[in-house]
Amino acid sequence: MVESNIYMKINMLGNIYIKDIIVYYDKPLVFSCVNDFQQHFIAMCNELDYIEQWIFLPISEALLIRGLRGNISAYNLFKYPEGEFLWKIYIDSNNYRTGKAIQIKPESLCDEDLPDKDIVYDIYEENEFSIKNSDRKNTLNDSILERREIFDISLEPNESHVHEIDALVLGRVLESTQNIINLIAHKKGINAKVPNSIKEKNKLNVTGNYAASFGIRLKSNLLADMLNESEIQRNLDIFMNILTAKSDMDKLTEILKGLNPAVSLYYIDLLKLLSKENIGIKTYCAFPNNKYRKNYFASEEIKLSLKKLEENIKELSNEIYLEGDIVAIDTLNRTFKFITYDEEKVNGAIGEKINVEEYVLPKKAKIKLEIISKLNDLIGKEEINYRLLELEYM
Question: What separation, in Å, do the N-terminal and C-terminal C-alpha atoms of the chain show?
């Protein structure tokens, strides 16, 4: 660290260097900072007097990133810190080289000492494209005027703001995103095969980039209807729900169990890619019906979400009805083959309640199918199995 960049000197903490100014009024009053030992803090001035009083919150870099992006309220950051204590600083307002620190317990702070409960430290509201209120308004206006959905993706390699990224990685992220949207749209699908008609309705076009870490703008290929709604809008909403659920397994399970079983497979693959490349991802949606959503998924959160998904979601199942042709039944092994009217082929086990002693094949039928999606720990991939629950010849 450069000597001239020292902002404060505090016993117990050492030299303090400002990283990001959060609140400024005549001088920095709230800021993130680091010392010579690379310990991170959020500093908040509690009392402006001849002897100033400050609260220094020790914080990990991962939580600091979340805090500065407004994902956690300022109140909760100080009220429920990662460690067992905070630092209270007393320092001469005319000499920032004489600070004295004492440890305090978070429970010793009353609400008057803390930020208001609705305050968040979203420092990028003022600095980054499409997070600023003006850019948000412009993005929404573009979406409304063009009657197209706008989906912005910003990738942050190594949690930094570099403006370059591996072309193969970018291509895979965009391909995974489009595949997941398609699979969400194919709600009655039984595997990763999506009809072309659904792909056309959910196609996203790359229309440019923007000045984020590495930002790509996508727009819907088709226009919204007269009510400013569309199929892809609903599917983008569901994708955002998945992303914002992060590592909340209850929410994720509830969302995924009602979707095409291949969605979870492709989503896990996307998280694996982002985790391997240590990339954080920000997503923004603007819809013609004046709806706007945003989410930030830090690389550490992605790793945690992936870990929990692989540990907790071992099996998902849902049931659907299909119409088509029963083309084969093996009474000995109790297996069947079925082809839907969309020419999707299904092979699976026959449920115990199904009587298959008498049959003439091929024959048109309506079936109730259980789709079981399992994570194979041995190969680290997902398997999709099918079980015939009901069979009604037509």
Answer: 78
Closest by CA to 124, choosing from 303, 300, 296, 299, is 296
pLDDT score at 393: 86
pLDDT at res. 27: 84
DSSP state of 351: P
Strand partners, 364: 325
Nearest CA-CA partner of 7 in 219, 29, 17, 191:
17
One-letter identity of residue 274: L
pLDDT digits (tens, 9 = 90+) for 20-61: 888 877 789 999 999 999 999 999 999 888 899 999 999 999
CA atoms within 13 A on the CB side of 334: 11
Find out whether 150 and 286 touch, Cβ atoms under 8 Å. yes
342 Cβ contact partners less than 8 Å away, ≥ 6 residues apart: 195
pLDDT tens string 176-209: 999 999 999 998 777 778 999 999 999 999 998 8
Mean pLDDT of the chain: 87
Strands (E), the chain: 8-10, 14-25, 27-35, 40-47, 51-59, 69-73, 86-92, 95-104, 120-122, 150-157, 204-210, 215-220, 279-286, 292-297, 315-330, 335-340, 345-350, 363-376, 381-393
Domains of the chain: 3-124 (no CATH), 128-313 (no CATH), 317-393 (2.40.50.500)
Q: What is the pTM of this model?
A: 0.61
% of the chain at pLDDT higher than 70: 90
Q: Which amino acid is at 259?
A: L
Q: Which residue has the tokens 């009655």?
A: 188
